[in-house]
Amino acid sequence: MKPDGQGRRRRVLLGTLGAFSGLLAGVTALSAAELVAAWVRPQAGPVIAVGQAAIDRTPAAVKDWAIRQFGTDDKLVLQLGILAVLVLFALALGVLALRRRRISAAGVALIGAVGAMAAVSRPDSSSAVDAVPSLAGALVGALLLYLLGGRLRPPIPPARATPSAEGADAGEATGWDRRGFVIAATAAAAASAGAGALGRSVGGARGRDAAASRENLVLPAPVSPAAPVPKAAQVRATGISPFTTPNNAFYRVDTALVVPKINARTWRLRIHGKGVTRPVTLSFADLLRRELVERDITLTCVSNEVGGPYVGNARWTGVRLADLLAESGVRPPSRGGPADQLVARSEDGMTIGSPVEDVMDGRDALLAVGMNGQPLPFEHGFPARMVVPGLYGYVSACKWIKDIELTTFDAYDSYWVKRGWARKAPIKTQSRIDTPKPFARPKTGWVMVAGVAWAQHRGIDQVEVRVDDGPWQQATLAAEDTRDTWRQWSLPWRATKGGHTLTVRATDRTGQTQTQHRTRTVPDGASGWHSVVVTVE
Fold this sequence. Notes:
The chain is an alpha+beta fold. It has helices at residues 5-40, 46-57, 60-70, 74-96, 101-121, 132-151, 178-215, 284-288, 321-327, 356-359, and strands at residues 268-273, 280-283, 293-300, 311-320, 341-346, 351-355, 366-371, 374-375, 385-387, 401-407, 430-435, 445-454, 460-467, 472-474, 476-477, 487-495, 498-508, 530-536. It has a 5-stranded mixed sheet. Strands 3, 4, 7, 8 and 9 form a 5-stranded antiparallel sheet that branches. The chain has a 4-stranded antiparallel sheet with strand order 11-12-16-15, with no helix packed on it.
């Protein structure tokens, strides 16, 4: 016999309530897990742990695509994607709980186990305790879903009600426990909100301590201050990048879903490994007691496409890394040292391998504590990070650094090398047109074409611009600050009506002109000429 309209409506209602039960159980499980993670370690929370595991296992080409598509919002997109998947699972398990409560509860437990395995498999995990948040959340979610499922009973007519193996699991009765369901769901929602608020409070207290250690920090005056930036280093052209990039506009590309908030008072840096005759552990106070130097250095991310935004220039304050290494007994390979790779480890588990020779060849490789006259922002590595001019960030710019190990390239592959990137990656000579913007519609007459060029630790010697397929024209270079910073350039162009393609290329101080050959960022940085298309009206 076909169910009547009332029966169908009851099934739809129960199905909706079942899906709601699954969603509520999922939210409560996450709230419980995040509460436990606030005490254990924020990075052990299930969403963060699974997200970081996903990042670790994503092919380099896919990561590169995500950065191109979403920029610095790529991590937010990943987290939203994970939450969306969890919502779908929760809805499905909630509907399943109407008939198979034990199976649906087991499904919640399985999801918790995935989170637990992701947490303990992270390189920054040092204890099995990292599995506790996901397991605790799964237990709470499974119990709640089992309870709510028991309050919902499918509308089976009494004449067809027969005992089954699951008995109460099938809820074989004509009605459902409305009052019990409402009470249980309301209590769960309140507990979830309370757990979430408490977790944020506990986590916030840790963050506040770290923030206070930064806010109360006054950096000592550098013993070796940077020379003033020449006034002529900044081209007067609307739309060109500022010579010094403000902290809040400086690019950020890393794998950390949650920015580590580290208390400077408890931070420590360990230096050890092959060729280290005097291992040392330094506190932040130890660093500040040393001679600080201040240098203008341009950083570039290897994920920067031709003409891309992931390059910026800042004034960094820190300790010479070569001095720290030398005091620990380290010698570069050119002087007989046994280690040719410096592996820096971050608080978030990242490992970055740098050539020891480059770090100790006299360039201003820094263990930086300040950026543009302020303590490092948390997003850029507070309390300390590495800055090495001339090398892409993935082989030099370790943020939230906590450990330096001397080893060899043959003995160890760092995080990005394991994923197909080159072991050594000096920055390629590049240039970019900042103005006019792509698809701009300037008026006929004189138009200022301007931009930046960089070849850190080599310096820029020449920039040329071509209009359509015409001859290369030499642009005017702005004053050079140092060979470790980018250099601005400009060229007045007499624009004629119609569509035009503007192309730029740079030549560094070694005489090498950037190649026209276009390559992607993997494995050691993009190459090619940057062009923009404009329509002159």
